[in-house]
Please model this.
Amino acid sequence: MAFARPFARNAKTAPIPFGVVLVPTPDPEPEEFDADALAFLTAVETADGEELEAGVKSLVNGLVVNLKSDGLWSKIDQCGLMVGAKTLAGACVTLKGDPLQSVTAFVEDDYSRTLGLKGDGESKWMNAAMTTFSQNDAHMAVFLGEAHSTNDDVGRCFFGNNNSSGGSRLNYHKTNRRPVINGASEKVNAGTDFNASLYGVSRANATEFQEHYNGTTATFEEASVAPSGNGLRVFARQFGGGGANSYTFARLAWWSHGGAIDLSTLDAHLSAFMSALQSELS
Model:
């Protein structure tokens, strides 16, 4: 608490007139938090069982404000920010949208406050929600907390539902990526060396969709079909009624789905946030 007229013991100062009271100046006003950011931070602290650092809270608030200012927040139906929290429970709180329906097999050691949550490629996954995609207005994306690659022959998936027509998933297999969003078939693209950055797809019309990979956005022709409506899995794809398969062993810091979105801008905001968070907690 700062005082209007500070003085030190034994210092030679003019006498204070009788009746004059030293009035403390008020502390600076705390940062005004966006309502959605504050609700998320409160839920994370409740799950963690302790308060987050002021710097971490400020960064999360800034991310939400920036997403809103660039028109991205309104395009997101559901998302998870899996960094910053102090515990696995806190990392599983959704930033926007419905809570996760279930979290399977993850343990505390899988979680890093600055890098995110790591799958095991065998059994760990999250049940996000039923898809709410519009046929020609949809996106799904993940942010990898660290670089990731695979050379095995197992089909894997960062985020998605099953292989039925109208499915949406971020599949990859050995040397190629196989994304699809509201389509009849996957688009095979060479390369599975993923940087620590955003990977995702977005569809804004009936004839094509965009894929964002390692900082570059490319457009591919692929006619849309009606969304399958099957449930979404994080760290895997939906399989059967309530299960999962095609697990990834990547480390993810973010996942989101909703309407068509500018993937490059989303990548820029999340990259800046991740860098600042690592500096804050280092």
